[in-house]
Amino acid sequence: MNHLTDAFSAPAPPPWKAEMWLRFRRLFWLKLVGTSVFTWLFFIGYFHLLRHPAAAVMVMPLTPLDHLIPFLPEWLPAYLTLWIYVGVAPGLQRNFAELVVYGLWVGALCLSGLALFYLWPTAVPPLTIDVSGYAGFAMLQGVDASGNACPSMHVAVAIFTALRLDDVFRQARTPVAFRMVNALWFLAIVWSTMAVKQHVVLDAVAGALLGLAFVLPSLHWRPTPHRVQILTNRADIISYQ
User: Fold this and answer.
1) Crossing angle of helices 201-218/96-119, nearest 10°?
2) Residue 148: per-residue pLDDT
3) In sequence order, what are the residues at sequence separation of 6 or more whose Cβ sits closer than 8 angstroms to the Cβ of residue 137?
4) Which end of the chain has less neighbouring CB within 10 Å, N or C?
5) Cα separation of 171 and 229, whole Å?
6) Which DSSP string corresponds to 54-110?
């Protein structure tokens, strides 16, 4: 009897923890499968345009800043984490309507990027460094070649994710550390695109502008956000613990 009393008298988790847990578990499998399918469809179009450009490919010019950024192969893991990062924000949408509208906005962003690659094929300058001795770079060069450079979709999708994820943390009133980690993860991805020489500065700037063109209106034209609520239902508290 005492154990039962203790279970029901246990303090409820802090409101932000309950809210984040609710967001994470709601529609989990739909979010996981939907994000995977969406990414797969994007790559079908991406690689088709990469291997079959519709016009002559323009090599992107280097800026003085590009000459100051050294080749830093240790940043490759940060570059690859984009494919985890892009799933976090949709995975924390609170309901089906928010998830669908999020998908429509990011889908429009990706289609716009593919349209730009079709109309204006670009590539980064050839590497003057032999990367064969660096782990992972042979695979990267074979899969994600130097084409489809501008705008950088790595940066475009990363900035879309960063601002939408920051909005989730703000709504849930999480500790500021969550927002700081999000910002640092975003900056690491952006820096890595140039540090591993997959993109030049102009690619990153164009990618940021493209991402902002979609994420800023997406923060206003969407389902009315639900107010963050404390989950007082005992079953929810027990399932959280």
Assistant:
1) 150
2) 83
3) 73, 76, 131, 196
4) N
5) 10
6) SSPPEEPPPPHHHHHS---GGGHHHHHTHHHHHHHHHHT--SHHHHHHHHHHHHHHH
- In this predicted model, what pLDDT tens digit does every residue of 119-175 receive, in sequence order? 999 999 887 777 666 776 766 765 666 678 899 999 999 999 999 999 999 999 999
Sign of the CA dihedral with 214 first, then 48, 154, and 195 last:
negative
Distance of CA 13 to the CA centre of its chain: 28
Q: Is 61 left (phi over 0), alpha (psi -120 to 50) or beta?
A: beta
- The structural domains of the chain, with segments of one domain joined by +, span 28-240
Average pLDDT, the chain: 86
Note whether 212 and 164 are within 8 A (CB): no
Tokens of 185: 């993860």
DSSP structure class, residue 232: -
User: Per the structure block, which two tokens stand in for 1?
Assistant: 């009897």
Nearest C-alpha neighbor of 154 from the set 42, 32, 30, 35: 42
> Which token pair is 123?
């590539």
Quote the CA–CA distance of 29 and 83 in Å, as a whole number: 17
Question: Region 64-89: what's the mean pLDDT?
Answer: 93
Q: How far apart are the C-alpha atoms of 222 and 97, rounded to whole Å?
A: 9
Q: For the chain, report the end-to-end CA distance as a whole number of angstroms.
A: 19
